[in-house]
Design brief:
Shape: elongated
CATH architecture of the largest domain: 3-Layer(aba) Sandwich
Strand content: 25-35%
Helix content: 25-40%
CATH superfamily of the largest domain: P-loop containing nucleotide triphosphate hydrolases
Distance between the termini: 72 Å
CATH class of the largest domain: Alpha Beta
Radius of gyration: 30 Å
Number of strands: 22
Strand order of the largest sheet: 5-4-6-7-3-8-9-10-11
CATH topology of the largest domain: Rossmann fold
């Protein structure tokens, strides 16, 4: 195999893509070439997979790659690659655990790496790199060198020697560390040009949740903070932390109809693009149906809608919508309605935010429905951080001009309703639903509590679901105490059910 061209030490460093689009986004394009980088994390976090993706990306760009392993055999690496559907053909793998790596020709005489002299190991690595002249190198792992060094001083000197040598050759190097020395090995952090930390959280229900953090990267303005990522067949998929301030655009601020004239009146003219509406009330009162009605009205205008389900199954939503005259099947078939059902235990907040971004930026949806906020809150431990991420996502959607409908179930059925979150912090506008009793029946009421964008009505109206869909009656002027669950009827006002035999829907 011919040797790849080796860049001159005086050449201007470029940017090396990692082969992971989300990580490149976090790194502002990739890793500066001809430098040494540390990838650290406990076993199982995805370090080996990240290194293989890095080398495979180099191969795709015509660069030569070398994987030096002191902890895994070449056969094990091939199995890892095969599990992702990759071939390592064209990538040199040097296995210091193999007969070749520990042979007499390799100047090593003992059969276990922990007993091999540190100097012999590093000299063999240097000899191989000098012979192959690779553009990209993955070194797995530093824990073996640490064991051989037996002292922090020897260890640091050997790492510095390798760093200088790799720089002279012109390699871009990933050194993997499984952190067996404990937390906070600042020796490595000070030597490396950049540090990427992988974390795996196994203290939650469901699959492990993984986060990535760039601890340092000299000379590059990277995206700081934790970024969720998945490790699945096909490698790492990184979901960069959303920063709403980086996004925006021009859009028409004119209100759009909900498809229900009475509801438009209550909201002060309809739904305002670039804002969100929180639909809050007890379970079964009609929040999801209201959101579905708004979505159908938008799609009838030609808009695209993204509907995310965390609670209800798609089958039951479709069946109930048909019964209420809000058939969504044609819109699903045409692709106008993008509907996805998520299991809160399976999805990370970053993954969900990326799905919403793809819908807005790629599929050009104009309305987003989240059902429900309660289930979304179960996607990650530590509710305060999840609430911050939701606030950032809503700010992003507002800047993109989307109409966002958020469904929130309140605790209780009648009387004082309680919520686990600060409603005013999240919502631009809020609609509140209540059950109340009248004439021996359980009825429903709806009211607009607040709106930051339009002057809304303050009346409380009767709300009903039935064969004719959603019906909203006149203001309940003859009733008092509806919101506190102690409604008193003081007049002769007709109700929606008076004069017909239709029973309210569920």
């Amino acid at each position: 195999m011919p040797k790849a061209h080796s860049p001159s030490p005086s050449a201007t460093p470029g940017i090396a893509s990692t082969g992971i689009a989300g990580l490149d986004d976090v790194l502002s394009g990739g890793l500066p070439t001809r430098h040494l980088f540390l990838v650290e994390g406990s076993p199982g976090t995805g370090k080996t997979t990240l290194a293989l993706q890095f080398l495979l990306e180099g191969r795709a760009q015509g660069e030569r790659g070398l994987y030096v392993t002191l902890s895994e055999t070449a056969q094990e690496l091939a199995q890892v690659a095969q599990s992702h559907g990759w071939s390592l053909e064209g990538i040199e793998i040097f296995d210091l655990l193999s007969d070749e790596g520990l042979s007499e020709e390799a100047e090593q005489t003992i059969l276990h790496p922990s007993e091999v002299e540190l100097g012999e190991t590093t000299r063999e690595v240097m000899r191989l790199v000098d012979e192959l002249r690779p553009d990209r190198v993955a070194f797995d792992s530093l824990s073996e060198l640490r064991l051989l060094a037996q002292s922090p001083l020897r260890y640091r000197r050997q790492i510095l020697a390798l760093k200088r040598f790799f720089a002279q050759i012109g390699c871009t190097v990933l050194m993997l560390d499984d952190k067996t020395s404990g937390e906070g090995d600042q020796q490595l952090h000070s030597i490396a040009h950049g540090v990427i930390h992988l974390n795996q959280n196994s203290n939650t229900y469901g699959p492990d949740k993984r986060q990535l953090r760039v601890v340092k990267l000299r000379g590059i303005k990277f995206r700081s903070g934790d970024h969720d990522f998945n490790l699945d067949r096909g490698g790492l998929e990184v979901f960069p932390r959303l920063s709403a301030g980086e996004h925006g655009g021009r859009f028409d601020h004119a209100p759009v109809s909900t498809g229900m004239p009475a509801f438009d009146e209550m909201l002060g003219g309809g739904l305002s693009p670039g804002s969100n509406l929180l639909l809050a009330g007890p379970a079964g009162v009609g929040k999801t149906t209201t959101a579905t009605s708004c979505a159908v009205a938008a799609m009838r205008r030609g808009e695209r809608v993204a509907f995310y389900l965390f609670d209800e199954g798609l089958h039951s939503l479709r069946q109930r919508s048909r019964c209420l005259g809000l058939d969504i099947d044609p819109f699903i078939a045409s692709g106008q309605l993008l509907i996805r059902s998520f299991d809160p235990a399976e999805v990370s907040p970053g993954q969900f935010a990326q799905a919403v971004r793809d819908a807005v930026e790629t599929d050009r949806v104009g309305m987003v429905v989240l059902d429900s906020l309660n289930s979304y809150m179960q996607a990650m431990p530590g509710g305060q951080y999840l609430l911050l991420q939701m606030h950032e996502l809503l700010a992003y959607l507002n800047l993109k001009g989307a109409v966002t409908l958020i469904i929130l179930s309140l605790h209780g059925t009648v009387g004082e309703m309680k919520s686990d979150i600060d409603l005013s912090y999240l919502s631009d506008a809020m609609v509140q639903y209540r059950f109340f009793e009248a004439r021996g029946e359980v009825l429903k009421a709806i009211s607009v509590i607040k709106s930051r964008t339009m002057e809304h009505q303050t009346s409380i109206r009767e709300f009903r679901l039935g064969a004719r869909g959603i019906e909203i009656g006149k203001p309940l002027s003859d009733f008092h105490g509806i919101l506190v669950g102690a409604a008193r009827y003081t007049g002769h006002q007709p109700l929606l059910g008076d004069g017909d035999t239709d029973q309210p829907g569920s």
